[in-house]
Design goal:
Strand order of the largest sheet: 2-1-3-6-7
Number of domains: 1
Strand content: 25-35%
Shape: globular
Helix content: 40-55%
CATH class: Alpha Beta
């Protein structure tokens, strides 16, 4: 696994963000969090992360709003959309170009394994 991959997590649940950040930093990835759409867009533009973990429902918009405002995200980052059950279907996410989709609740192991899988593909 390559060290130094940049990952941005945009989720308004601070505790969830902290936990995901902690397990990914243990894997030696560079991880930052944002808790609003506005903050997330600014950080994404600055960081240009390899992976974006994006909650679909944020206090100031949705993950879909993020993609509409920053469409190049789908070309520059692998996007993992996280949403509560029934709020965004896998088909809706795929229709906008998102390859990875996780429904809450999920285990932290799922996030870690998905990130590792994405990075292995990018390295090859």
């Amino acid at each position: 696994m390559s060290k130094g991959f940049k990952i941005l997590i945009i989720d308004d649940e601070k505790e969830l963000c902290d936990l995901v950040q902690l397990i990914l930093k243990d894997e030696h990835y560079m991880v930052e969090c944002a808790h609003t759409l506005k903050e997330g867009i600014k950080k994404w533009i600055r960081l240009q992360p390899s992976i974006l973990i994006l909650d679909n429902f944020l206090p100031d918009g949705t993950g879909l709003d993020f993609i509409k405002q920053v469409p190049e995200v789908l070309f520059k980052s692998k996007v993992i959309i996280i949403t509560g059950e029934g709020k965004l279907s896998r088909e809706q996410a795929q229709n906008i170009g998102v390859e990875f989709f996780i429904e809450k609740p999920f285990s932290l192991k799922v996030i870690r394994e998905l990130v590792q899988e994405i990075i292995m593909v990018q390295e090859n």
